[in-house]
Design brief:
Elements (H helix, E strand, L loop, with lengths): L1 H28 L1 H20 L6 H18 L12 H19 L2 H5 L5 H21 L4 H22 L2 H87 L6 H29 L7 E4 H18 L3 E4 L5 E4 L1 H17 L5 E9 L2 E8 L33 H12 L3 E6 L3 E9 L32 E5 L3 H13 L4 E4 L2 H8 L3 H4 L2 E7 L8 H11 L6 E5 L4 H10 L3 E3 L4 H23 L1
Parallel strand pairs: 2-4, 8-9, 8-10, 10-11, 11-12
Antiparallel strand pairs: 1-3, 4-5, 5-7, 6-7
Helix pairs in contact: 1-4, 1-8, 2-3, 3-4, 4-7, 6-7, 6-8, 7-8, 8-9, 8-13, 9-12, 9-17, 10-11, 11-12
């Protein structure tokens, strides 16, 4: 308890010092101007009075006042570089200086006030009160300075007026007293307002500083999370990639045998885990900025057909109705990314709809098209509407049921919404269902648009048919993981592909310089992106192609998800597959690269 009290007192003391520092800075800002104006006013008053009063010691008073003003002007003063802890010293020093100036000025009314020249007395009194009031206002930030400057000078004037007597002088004395009281009262109020405004300012600054710290901490946590996911994803992808390759080779070897069912179950589990890892990769790719939209005129019905094909089976399994209504509308968007947004929304709706169904419609609204995904599911409470787009947040899934995914689908939707500039709107009633609306710009119909879109890159990871590459040469594979080399060799050999698997660049050079390299050339270079000891597989592949003048295409395989590395891979233009790579995906990618390699090999052999 005592520690808390001490901490609170320390905070209060620091705040008081900051306030005092601001007050000291305020009064010292006009210090030189005030002293010079005071001395100039004293000289003008003395000259004006000397022609009417023949007091020899008036000159003496003026000399004393000049000396005091000069001292106040030349005395050391506070500067912005002064430590805050020294603020009380400079506040006291300033109060002493202005008090000394006021005390030196106080005797002037004793010989300037007259009972015979009432006009001069009245003018003198009014001028003194006016200038004094203005000077005291400049000292309002420091109460000791305000009283130190105000009391001696006005006391001298009031005393002189009372001393000389006469009704006019007494009236002026009373007027001066009232002005003194009212000026000090206003000064105290203004001092309080200034102090309160400074407290409010410092509290706002403290809140802003804490907010900045919280934002920085959140950004650091997000960066740490991204780095953790990238590292964990890479480390998980390595063995998963080997499992997928060994499993594909095993499945191929067990065709027609009873054990085939177990191999198929194994590969379904591998595909499910691969889908989860690929979802995390999607987040990294979007955060890295490597996904670049390619908008075009798009017929929505061409997008709805594969959407219906993809999710109709999932709806049937849950006895739900999936209605995707044709619209005949055209929009301008990236077909792949828009399809991904819609597929995530439909998938999310099916997961949280126990009965009824899901409806996808498109409505024209001026220059915009509303694409709505409605469900009759559990709905979303108002307090949770903002959280549903957070990563890994799932409503009603405290047990982390894997059948409901990772809770990243809507986070991807939000990122794609920002990337495509397609706002997402949500309306929901708990227990009644939810409606997600995408607002997409309309477009004119185009004859160049394809009737059916190739969406295999964004569909849910499923096993699909593939083409075995017809390579007219060997495959040189570089991977530092021995298990992956063995699995890749077993898989490719099962499809009658000749592969040479090595661990590093030195072994690759040895293979390329072997006498067999001319008789049996390499038709494809397959390289892992991250090799042992931090070696960059992209650099290795490019160096080998340049050094040996290889016409063979380069294909990268990686488990990387770090945004900066993904950006570098994309900038290189080299095709890349992300681990775990299924046999179908690998062989299809190799088949797509093979024709170009064939043509180069044929030209070289002529």
């Amino acid at each position: 308890m005592s520690d808390i009290v001490s901490k609170h007192l320390a905070v209060d003391a620091t705040l008081n010092l900051r306030i005092l520092r601001e007050h000291v800075a305020s009064v010292y800002a006009g210090h030189s101007t005030a002293i010079l104006a005071h001395f100039g006013f004293a000289i003008a008053l003395a000259i004006f009075s000397y022609s009417r009063l023949d007091y020899p010691w008036l000159l003496c008073w003026l000399l004393v006042l000049a000396a005091v003003d000069l001292y106040a002007l030349l005395a050391p003063r506070w500067t912005p570089g002064t430590p805050m802890a020294d603020s009380p010293y400079w506040a006291r020093k300033y109060a002493r200086l202005v008090t000394m100036v006021s005390v030196a000025t106080a005797p002037a009314p004793l010989f300037l006030v007259s009972t015979t020249d009432l006009v001069m007395t009245t003018v003198f009194t009014v001028v003194i009160i006016g200038s004094w009031t203005r000077a005291v206002q400049a000292r309002w930030p420091l109460k000791p300075a305000m009283f130190g400057y105000g009391v001696p000078m006005m006391t001298g004037l009031i005393a002189a007026l009372v001393w000389h007597g006469s009704a006019l002088n007494w009236f002026l004395a009373a007027f001066g007293t009232v002005n003194l009281v009212l000026t000090f009262r206003a000064g105290l109020q203004e001092n309080r307002r200034l102090t309160e405004s400074l407290i409010l300012r410092f509290e706002n600054e403290a809140l802003a500083a804490r907010l900045s710290e919280q934002i920085a901490a959140t950004e650091r946590a997000s960066a740490e999370k991204t780095r953790f996911l990238a590292t964990a994803s890479h480390d998980l992808r390595q063995p998963m990639h080997a499992i997928a390759l060994f499993g594909a080779a095993l499945e191929n070897a067990l065709v027609g045998r009873p054990e085939m069912k177990n191999a198929e179950r194994l590969m379904r589990a591998v595909d499910t885990l691969g889908a989860s890892l690929n979802t995390m990769l999607d987040i990294s790719r979007l955060d890295a900025g490597v996904v670049v939209p390619e908008p075009c005129a798009l017929e929505l019905d061409a997008l709805f057909r594969p959407l219906n094909h993809t999710f109709s089976a999932q709806a049937d399994q849950k006895n739900l109705q999936l209605r995707i209504r044709a619209s005949g509308l055209w929009v301008r968007s990236d077909p792949q990314l828009l399809y991904r947004m819609l597929s995530n929304l439909v998938d999310n709706a099916l997961k949280y709809t126990p009965q009824g169904g899901v409806t996808v419609t498109a409505l024209a609204r001026g220059d915009l098209v509303w694409i709505e995904v409605r469900d009759t599911g559990i709905g979303i409470a108002p307090a949770q509407l903002e959280r549903i787009f957070e990563e890994f947040y799932q409503i009603g899934n405290p047990g982390r049921d894997r059948s409901r995914g990772l809770g990243i689908g809507l986070s991807i939707v939000q990122r794609l919404s920002h990337l495509l500039a397609h706002p997402v709107q949500v309306r929901s009633r708990p227990g009644r269902g939810t409606c997600f609306r995408l607002v997409v710009p309309t477009a004119k119909a185009s004859l160049d648009a394809p009737a059916d879109l190739l969406l295999q890159d964004l569909e849910s990871p499923v096993r699909h048919r593939f083409t075995v590459p017809d390579l007219r040469g060997r495959i040189l594979m570089i991977d530092d993981e021995s298990e992956i080399r063995e699995a890749m060799t077993a898989l490719l050999q099962a499809y009658s592909l000749d592969v040479v698997a090595v661990a590093d660049e030195a072994a690759a050079i040895e293979s390329l310089t072997h006498p067999d390299a001319q008789a049996r050339p390499f038709a494809l270079l397959l390289c892992d992106y991250r090799l042992a000891d931090g070696v960059d597989g992209l650099d290795v592949g490019l160096r080998l192609r340049k050094r040996f003048q290889l016409d063979a295409p380069l294909l990268l395989i990686t488990g990387e998800t770090a945004p900066e590395r993904l950006q570098r891979v994309r900038a290189s233009g080299v095709p890349v597959l992300f681990k775990p790579v299924s046999a179908a995906t690998l062989l299809q990618a190799m088949a797509e690269l093979a024709p170009a390699g064939h043509r180069r090999l044929q030209r070289r052999n002529k």
